[in-house]
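testing teh design pipeline on a random one, pls ignore if ur not involved
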C-alpha cells in the first residue's frame, strides 16, 4: 500500500510541476515514409522533421540528443514562431550511420522543462528474396540521346533511392518507376544485355538493343582539319571535328571514340544529313591534356563486336584566355556603393567576367572598363548593395563559369550591411498554387520580413516587387507565375540563399503546410495507368514540307487539368548522360489538352520539313524530371517519319577571303568575304560580331540574298586615317537556316560545353586560328592614350514608377568628345542601368548625331522591366567610348557623380495598374485565351479585332481567361486591345498556330512489338486516316449468388417492382428501397429569393371526416461548410448567411455565396442550383444515368477551389431536412438512413459506389432524399461519403423531434480537391403503404399511439447500453495503443521509473 501511495505522490508532483512550468511537447512531423529506408552499405540515413511547441513563458527552444549510440544525430532549427504566450519551432533532424540498433531519442527543452521523443526509424535489409520485376518497356532511343527503358520493381516497402548500379548509364528513380538510360558507346564491344544491379544481389537483364547481326558501314571519313597533327583551338572548347557516312539503321548507333589518354570512351556526335538510307554524322575529338599527343581510335558495330574504322594522333592545344589579376584589386565600400578598381598590363581579350554576390552573373565587355588599349586596361565599376545584408558576404571576380581554375584568376572582396542589422530571415506563413493553363501555376505566398522584400527568385527567373498583391513589403501576399516544366527547386527572398523555400519542407510551425511544387502526383502510377495511347497518322512525310500529327492517350484516375506536355525530339547531341529536360528543349514542348468530345488527352505537334526520318523519340512530361518515354505507350502510339532530304545542319562558311588593308590613306573597308552555303533548307539569316583590340565593337546583321543556298556576304569595318594599329577579330557568328537549324561560334563560348563544337560554322577552317583575325595598318599612325570624355548628360526622368505600363521608359542623352584624335566612326558606346544583386540592363543607342570630327551626340532608350530597381534605385554608367588613337574608356556611376552629372534614378511602386506580361498561344479555331501579368483584376474588357471577348475566369491578380475569340487565319498577326478602367487601353499582337485536321479513331488491338529495330522505309506516303474497326468484347458468364431484396413480399410484389442483385427496381409511380412508397404529385414550391431553402407543402384529407385532414410540410436547407482533419475533427466551419439569387427559369434557381477566412478574404465560392421536376426525367451525373421522379427537387452544389490545410483534410457540407404534419394525435414519426448497392429505379448505377437514402416518415407520408455516393472532383467521378449527424454541438442546426415533427442533419463528406467539386442530392414526398409505428426505425409516437415500452424491454435496453459503452471504452483504449505506441511506451517507462523511485525510497527509508 505504501508503494502505491508513494507512486501516487510522485505522479502528483510531476503533474503539478508541469502545470506550474507550462507544457512542452515534441512530435515527429515528417511527411511521407522518410523514416523507413533500406540499408546502403550496411547503414541507413534519414532526414526527419520534428515540431517542438511550448505554451509556458516563451524562451529559446532546443533539442538535445542521446550520444554514444553508434550513430550520428544532427539537429538544427528550421523555422520558428513565438508570441507572448506561445512558441513553436520546427527542427530538421539528420541521422546517419544507423544500423537498426538503438533508438534515436530527442529531448526538447526550454531550459525549464523537457519532453522526450523516441523517433520511429526503420532500417531495413533489402528484401532480395521478395523483389521482382513487375513491368518493363522495350529498349529504344529516347529524347535525351540515350538508349533507354523504364521498369518497376515489386516487393519493396519503400523505394530504393540509392545503390542501383549500372555501368556507363544514367539511372533515375521517378516516383513508382525507374528510368534507365545508357550510352551507345561500347567499351571493347557492342553494348549487350544491359543489366541493373541492386545492392543486396537482385539484378535483371534485358536483350540488347543492337542486333548481333548488324554491321554498320563507315565511309567518307573526313577530319577537320585534315593532315594536321598540331591543332590550336580558335575558341574556348571548340574542338577539332570529323564527319563520316554510315548505312546504320539506328537513330543512335553503336559508335565510340577511344582516347588513349582518357579513362573512358568519349564521343560527341550527331546526325546532320540523311538520304537514300545513308546518314552523315559529325563528331568531335575530345581532349584531356592540352598540348600533349593523344591517340584516337574510332569504332563501329560489326555484328557482336566493335571494330576500329579510323585512327589518328593529335596534339590539341586549348584556347588561352587572359585571367583577371589576383592581387591588384582595390575595393571600397561607401554605404551602399561598392567601388571595384583593378589594373592589368595585358591587353583585354574579351573574356567575360563572372561576378558572384549571392548569385553569379555574367558580365561582358565593355562594362566596367574605364580605360584600355595596347598596354593593358583599368577596370572601375560601381555596384549597388541592398540596405540590409544578413552577414558579411563575399563578392568574387573570375573568368570561369563555375569556379576559378587557377589560383591567379580573380579575387574576392567582402561586403557589409550598409545599415546596421541583426538580420532575422524572412518567414513563410502560407502558400497556395493555382493552376492557370499548361504547366503554368500562380504561386500565392505570404511572407513576413524584418526588412523590406524587393525580390523573390527561383532557379530560372526573378520576380520583382510587382509580385506584391496585398499588404506591404514587410508583410504581404505575393503572386508569381511558375512554369513547372522548368527546373524549380527553390524560392529565395532578396537573393539570400541562407534560407530558401525548397520542396518537401514545412515553413510555418503554425500551419504545418508542406511546400510542394505542383503537380503533386506522389501516389499516381504514371507507368501503368496510361491507356488507349494512339497516333493519328502512322506515317509523316516531311520531305520538303512540314507535317502535323496528334497523339491521343488517356489516364486512369488523373485530373484532366493536370499539366502534361509532349516533346517530340531528335536530340541535339547523342550520348549525353542526362535525363532532365534541357532548357533548350522547352520551346519544343506542346501541351496535351483534354478533348471533352472524345474524352481523351490530345497533343498536336508539327515536325519541320526535312527533319530526321525513322521512329523519332518522344516523351510525355509531367515535370522536367518526371516523364514517360514514348516507347512506353505501346505500338499504337508509334509513328514513322519519311524524309528524303534530311537536313539537320546549319549554314556554314564554305569559303573565307580576308580583305585586309595594305595601307589606309583616307579610309577603307576592312573585313571578310564569307561564302555561306546551306544546300537543302537554305540560309535564313544571322549575325556577326567584330571586335577590335582598341575596344571597338561592330554588330553586323546578315540578310539572305535571293540565292539562299549559296552566296557571298561581305562583313566589313570602315577604317579612317589617321588611326592606331589594332587587330579586328570575329568573336561571334550565328547562322540560321529556314528551319531554324543553327551554326554557332563564340570565341569565349558563352553557351558553355564542348558539345557546341558540333555546330561550328568555321568547320572548314579549324586549325587556322588566324582566319577570324585581321591586323589593321595605317600610313599615318596616331597614338592617343587619353580616353574620350563626356561633356553633357541628361536623363528624361530621375523618378520612375516601375509598376506602370507606359511610364517605365528611360531615355539618356549625352555628348561624347575626344579633342585629341576624335571619336572612332561607327562605334556605339553602351549605357548601363544597374541595381542591387548585380542586375543590369543595357540602354541601346537609338540615335547618333555627329557634331563634328571630335564630338557626337548619342541617345539611348529602354523600357525598364516591371519592378526593376525597386526600392534601392538604379545606377547609371557609360562604357565603350573609343577614339581614333587606339584607346577606349568609360565612366562608372561614381565617375559621373564626380563630374556633376545625373547618375542615379529613383524608383517607386504602386499597386493597381494592370500590366500584361504574357499571353497564351491560340489556335486557328479561336476559342479561349489566357493573359498573365499583374493587377489584372483591373482589366474590364478585351476586344479581339472587332469582337468583344468575355471574361471567363480570374486567378488572383495575375491571370485572366477570355473567351469568344473568333476563328482565325494561320500566319496572320492579330491585335488584342485590353481596356484597363481608369488607365489607357493597350494592345498586344498575337499570331495563331495552325490547327491539325483529323478525326480520332480507336485503334485496333495489337500484339507486343519486338525489340529489333526496322530499317527506315524509303517510299513516300501521304498521311491518310485508315478506318479501323473498334474491337468488341465478348461477354462471359460469371456465376452469381442470389441476394434477397427488402420487403415482404420482396419489392412490394410483382406489380410494384422486382429484385435485382439485392436492390429493388421499382415500377412508376412506386419508389423506395422496398417499392412500397408512392410518388405524390404536388405543386412546385414557392421560389425562395433569400437562400437555397425550399418548403414543399402537401395537402391531404380523409374521405370520412374533414377534421382528420392534414397538411404535410417538407423543408430542405443548406446549413454550413466545415473542414475536417483526418480524424474528422472540425478545424474550420463556415455558416452560410448571405446568398446571391438569380432565376434560371421558372423551375430552376441559382444561389451563390462566398466563404471568407478570419481576415475577411474570400477563399472559396459555393454555387447551389435548385431544379424542380414536374415529370419523370432521365438525367446524367458523373457518367451515370439517373431517373428524376415527378415532384422531385434536385440540388446541384459546386464548391470552387478551397485552401485545405493539407491533403489529408476533407470538407463536409451540412444539409438539413425536416418533415412536419399538422396532425398530432395518434401518429408516429420515424427516420431511416440506409445504403443501397446502386440507385433505385436505375439499372445503370454504379454497383460499387451506390447511394444513401434518408426517409423521414410521419404517419403514412414520407419525405425521401437520395444522396449519391458519387461526386465530380476536379473533373473525375469518384466516391464520396454521406452520414447522418446526431447531437453535433459544432452546429447550430437543431434536430429535436416529436411525433409530428422530424428532422435530420446530413453531412456530405467531400475529399481533397484542387479546383472544384460537384454533388447532386435530390428530395421527394411520398405516400407509404404502411404507416409509421412504434416498431419503425427511430420512432417517436404520441401518448395515444400505443407506443409504450414494457419493463423487460427497458431493462434489455439499459443492459445493452452498458455493454455497448464498455465495448466502446475497450475499443478506444486499443485504438490509442495502436495509434500512439511511442507515447504508451514513454508512459510505461515513466510508470516503471516512478515505481523504481518509490521502491528505492521505501528500501532506503
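output:
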Amino acid at each position: 500500500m505504501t508503494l502505491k501511495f508513494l507512486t501516487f505522490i510522485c505522479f502528483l508532483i510531476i503533474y503539478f510541476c508541469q502545470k506550474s512550468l507550462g507544457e512542452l511537447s515534441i512530435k515527429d512531423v515528417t511527411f511521407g515514409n522518410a523514416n523507413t529506408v533500406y540499408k546502403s552499405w550496411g547503414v541507413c540515413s534519414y532526414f526527419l522533421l520534428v515540431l517542438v511547441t511550448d505554451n509556458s513563458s516563451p524562451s529559446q527552444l532546443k533539442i538535445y540528443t542521446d550520444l554514444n549510440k553508434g550513430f550520428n544525430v544532427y539537429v538544427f532549427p528550421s523555422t520558428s514562431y513565438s508570441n507572448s504566450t506561445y512558441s513553436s519551432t520546427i527542427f530538421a533532424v539528420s541521422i546517419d550511420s544507423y544500423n537498426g540498433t538503438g533508438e534515436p531519442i530527442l529531448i526538447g527543452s526550454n531550459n525549464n522543462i523537457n519532453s522526450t521523443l523516441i523517433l520511429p526509424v526503420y532500417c531495413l535489409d533489402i528484401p532480395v528474396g521478395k523483389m521482382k520485376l513487375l513491368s518493363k518497356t522495350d529498349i529504344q532511343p529516347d529524347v535525351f540521346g540515350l538508349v533507354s527503358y523504364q521498369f518497376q520493381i515489386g516487393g519493396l516497402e519503400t523505394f530504393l533511392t540509392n545503390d542501383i548500379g549500372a555501368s556507363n548509364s544514367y539511372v533515375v528513380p521517378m516516383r513508382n518507376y525507374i528510368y534507365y538510360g545508357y550510352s551507345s558507346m561500347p567499351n571493347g564491344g557492342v553494348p549487350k544485355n544491359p543489366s541493373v544491379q541492386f545492392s543486396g544481389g537482385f539484378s535483371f537483364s534485358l536483350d540488347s538493343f543492337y542486333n548481333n547481326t548488324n554491321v554498320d558501314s563507315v565511309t567518307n571519313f573526313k577530319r577537320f582539319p585534315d593532315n594536321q597533327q598540331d591543332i590550336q583551338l580558335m575558341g574556348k572548347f571548340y574542338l577539332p571535328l570529323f564527319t563520316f557516312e554510315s548505312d546504320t539503321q539506328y537513330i543512335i548507333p553503336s559508335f565510340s571514340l577511344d582516347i588513349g589518354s582518357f579513362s573512358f570512351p568519349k564521343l560527341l556526335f550527331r546526325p546532320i544529313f540523311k538520304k537514300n538510307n545513308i546518314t552523315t554524322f559529325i563528331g568531335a575529338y575530345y581532349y584531356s591534356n592540352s598540348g600533349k599527343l593523344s591517340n584516337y581510335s574510332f569504332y563501329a558495330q560489326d555484328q557482336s563486336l566493335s571494330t576500329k574504322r579510323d585512327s589518328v594522333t593529335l596534339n590539341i592545344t586549348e584556347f588561352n584566355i587572359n585571367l583577371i589579376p589576383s592581387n591588384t584589386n582595390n575595393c571600397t565600400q561607401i554605404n551602399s556603393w561598392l567601388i571595384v578598381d583593378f589594373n592589368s598590363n595585358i591587353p583585354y581579350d574579351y573574356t567575360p567576367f563572372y561576378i558572384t554576390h549571392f548569385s553569379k552573373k555574367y558580365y561582358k565587355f565593355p562594362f566596367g572598363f574605364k580605360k584600355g588599349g595596347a598596354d593593358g586596361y583599368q577596370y572601375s565599376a560601381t555596384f549597388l548593395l541592398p540596405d540590409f545584408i544578413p552577414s558579411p558576404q563575399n563578392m568574387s571576380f573570375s573568368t570561369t563559369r563555375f569556379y576559378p581554375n587557377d589560383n591567379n584568376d580573380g579575387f574576392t572582396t567582402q561586403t557589409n550591411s550598409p545599415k546596421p542589422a541583426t538580420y532575422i530571415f524572412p518567414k513563410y506563413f502560407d502558400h497556395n498554387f493555382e493552376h492557370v493553363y499548361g504547366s503554368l501555376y500562380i504561386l500565392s505566398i505570404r511572407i513576413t520580413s524584418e526588412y523590406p522584400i524587393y525580390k523573390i527568385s527561383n532557379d530560372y527567373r526573378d520576380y520583382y516587387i510587382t509580385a506584391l498583391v496585398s499588404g506591404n513589403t514587410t508583410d504581404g501576399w505575393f503572386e508569381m507565375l511558375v512554369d513547372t516544366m522548368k527546373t524549380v527547386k527553390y524560392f529565395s527572398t532578396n537573393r539570400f540563399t541562407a534560407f530558401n523555400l525548397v520542396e518537401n519542407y514545412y515553413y510555418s510551425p503554425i500551419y504545418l503546410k508542406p511546400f510542394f511544387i505542383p503537380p503533386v502526383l506522389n501516389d499516381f502510377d504514371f507507368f501503368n495507368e496510361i491507356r488507349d495511347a494512339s497516333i493519328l497518322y502512322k506515317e509523316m512525310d516531311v520531305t520538303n514540307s512540314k507535317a502535323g500529327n496528334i497523339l491521343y492517350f488517356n489516364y486512369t484516375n488523373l485530373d484532366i487539368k493536370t499539366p502534361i506536355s509532349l516533346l517530340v525530339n531528335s536530340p541535339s547531341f547523342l550520348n549525353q548522360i542526362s535525363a532532365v529536360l534541357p532548357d533548350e528543349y522547352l520551346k519544343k514542348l506542346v501541351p496535351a489538352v483534354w478533348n471533352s468530345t472524345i474524352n481523351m488527352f490530345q497533343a498536336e505537334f508539327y515536325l519541320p520539313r526535312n527533319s530526321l526520318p525513322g521512329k523519332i523519340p518522344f516523351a510525355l512530361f509531367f515535370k522536367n524530371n518526371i516523364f514517360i518515354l514514348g516507347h512506353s505507350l505501346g505500338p499504337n502510339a508509334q509513328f514513322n517519319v519519311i524524309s528524303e532530304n534530311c537536313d539537320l545542319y546549319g549554314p556554314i562558311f564554305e569559303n573565307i577571303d580576308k580583305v585586309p588593308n595594305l595601307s589606309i590613306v583616307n579610309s577603307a573597308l576592312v573585313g571578310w568575304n564569307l561564302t555561306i552555303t546551306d544546300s537543302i533548307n537554305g540560309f535564313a539569316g544571322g549575325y556577326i560580331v567584330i571586335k577590335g583590340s582598341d575596344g571597338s565593337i561592330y554588330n553586323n546583321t546578315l540578310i539572305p540574298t535571293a540565292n539562299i543556298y549559296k552566296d557571298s556576304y561581305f562583313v566589313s569595318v570602315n577604317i579612317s586615317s589617321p588611326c592606331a594599329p589594332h587587330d579586328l577579330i570575329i568573336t561571334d557568328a550565328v547562322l540560321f537556316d529556314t528551319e531554324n537549324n543553327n551554326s554557332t561560334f563564340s570565341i569565349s563560348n558563352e553557351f558553355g560545353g564542348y558539345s557546341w563544337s558540333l555546330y561550328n560554322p568555321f568547320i572548314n577552317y579549324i586549325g587556322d586560328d588566324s582566319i577570324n583575325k585581321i591586323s589593321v595598318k595605317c600610313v599615318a599612325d596616331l597614338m592617343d592614350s587619353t580616353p574620350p570624355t563626356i561633356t553633357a548628360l541628361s536623363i528624361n526622368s530621375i523618378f520612375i514608377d516601375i509598376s506602370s505600363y507606359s511610364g517605365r521608359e528611360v531615355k539618356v542623352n549625352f555628348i561624347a568628345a575626344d579633342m585629341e584624335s576624335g571619336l572612332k566612326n561607327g562605334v556605339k558606346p553602351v549605357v548601363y542601368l544597374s541595381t542591387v544583386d548585380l542586375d543590369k540592363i543595357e540602354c541601346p543607342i537609338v540615335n547618333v548625331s555627329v557634331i563634328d570630327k571630335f564630338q557626337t551626340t548619342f541617345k539611348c532608350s529602354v523600357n525598364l522591366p516591371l519592378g526593376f530597381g525597386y526600392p534601392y534605385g538604379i545606377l547609371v554608367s557609360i562604357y565603350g567610348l573609343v577614339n581614333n588613337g587606339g584607346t577606349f574608356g568609360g565612366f562608372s556611376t561614381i565617375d559621373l557623380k564626380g563630374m556633376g552629372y545625373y547618375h542615379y534614378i529613383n524608383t517607386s511602386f504602386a499597386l493597381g495598374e494592370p500590366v500584361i506580361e504574357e499571353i497564351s498561344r491560340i489556335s486557328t479555331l479561336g476559342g479561349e485565351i489566357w493573359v498573365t501579368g499583374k493587377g489584372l483584376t483591373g482589366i474590364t474588357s478585351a476586344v479581339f479585332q472587332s469582337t468583344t471577348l468575355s471574361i471567363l475566369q480570374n486567378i488572383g491578380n495575375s491571370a485572366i481567361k477570355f473567351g469568344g475569340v473568333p476563328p482565325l487565319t494561320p500566319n496572320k498577326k492579330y491585335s488584342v486591345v485590353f481596356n484597363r478602367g481608369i488607365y489607357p487601353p493597350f494592345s498586344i499582337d498575337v499570331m495563331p498556330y495552325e490547327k491539325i485536321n483529323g478525326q480520332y479513331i480507336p485503334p485496333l488491338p495489337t500484339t507486343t512489338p519486338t525489340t529489333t529495330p526496322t530499317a527506315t522505309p524509303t517510299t513516300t506516303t501521304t498521311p491518310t486516316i485508315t478506318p479501323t474497326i473498334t474491337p468488341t468484347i465478348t461477354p462471359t458468364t460469371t456465376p452469381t449468388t442470389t441476394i434477397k431484396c427488402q420487403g415482404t413480399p420482396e419489392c412490394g410484389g410483382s406489380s410494384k417492382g422486382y429484385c435485382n442483385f439485392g436492390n429493388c427496381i421499382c415500377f412508376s409511380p412506386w419508389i423506395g428501397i422496398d417499392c412500397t412508397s408512392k410518388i405524390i404529385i404536388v405543386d412546385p414550391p414557392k421560389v425562395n429569393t433569400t437562400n437555397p431553402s425550399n418548403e414543399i407543402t402537401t395537402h391531404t384529407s380523409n374521405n370520412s371526416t374533414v377534421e382528420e385532414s392534414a397538411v404535410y410540410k417538407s423543408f430542405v436547407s443548406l446549413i454550413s461548410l466545415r473542414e475536417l482533419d483526418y480524424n474528422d475533427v472540425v478545424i474550420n466551419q463556415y455558416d452560410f448567411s448571405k446568398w446571391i439569387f438569380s432565376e434560371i427559369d421558372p423551375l430552376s434557381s441559382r444561389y451563390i455565396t462566398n466563404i471568407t477566412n478570419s481576415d475577411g478574404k474570400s477563399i472559396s465560392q459555393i454555387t447551389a442550383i435548385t431544379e424542380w421536376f414536374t415529370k419523370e426525367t432521365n438525367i446524367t451525373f458523373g457518367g451515370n444515368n439517373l431517373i428524376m421522379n415527378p415532384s422531385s427537387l434536385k440540388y446541384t452544389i459546386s464548391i470552387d477551389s478551397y485552401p485545405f490545410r493539407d491533403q489529408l483534410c476533407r470538407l463536409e457540407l451540412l444539409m438539413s431536412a425536416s418533415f412536419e404534419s399538422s396532425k398530432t394525435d395518434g401518429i408516429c414519426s420515424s427516420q431511416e438512413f440506409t445504403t443501397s448497392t446502386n440507385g433505385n429505379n436505375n439499372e445503370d448505377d454504379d454497383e460499387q459506389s451506390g447511394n444513401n437514402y434518408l426517409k423521414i416518415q410521419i404517419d403514412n407520408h414520407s419525405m425521401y432524399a437520395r444522396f449519391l455516393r458519387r461526386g465530380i472532383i476536379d473533373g473525375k467521378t469518384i466516391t464520396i461519403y454521406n452520414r447522418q449527424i446526431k447531437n453535433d454541438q459544432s452546429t447550430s442546426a437543431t434536430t429535436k423531434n416529436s411525433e409530428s415533427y422530424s428532422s435530420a442533419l446530413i453531412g456530405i463528406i467531400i475529399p481533397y480537391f484542387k479546383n472544384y467539386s460537384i454533388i447532386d442530392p435530390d428530395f421527394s414526398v411520398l405516400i407509404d403503404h404502411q404507416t409509421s409505428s412504434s416498431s419503425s426505425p427511430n420512432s417517436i409516437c404520441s401518448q395515444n399511439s400505443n407506443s409504450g415500452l414494457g419493463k423487460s424491454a427497458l431493462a434489455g435496453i439499459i443492459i445493452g447500453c452498458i455493454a455497448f459503452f464498455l465495448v466502446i471504452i475497450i475499443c478506444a483504449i486499443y485504438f490509442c495503443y495502436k495509434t500512439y505506441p511511442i507515447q504508451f511506451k514513454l508512459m510505461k517507462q515513466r510508470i516503471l521509473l516512478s515505481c523504481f523511485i518509490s521502491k528505492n525510497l521505501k528500501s532506503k527509508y
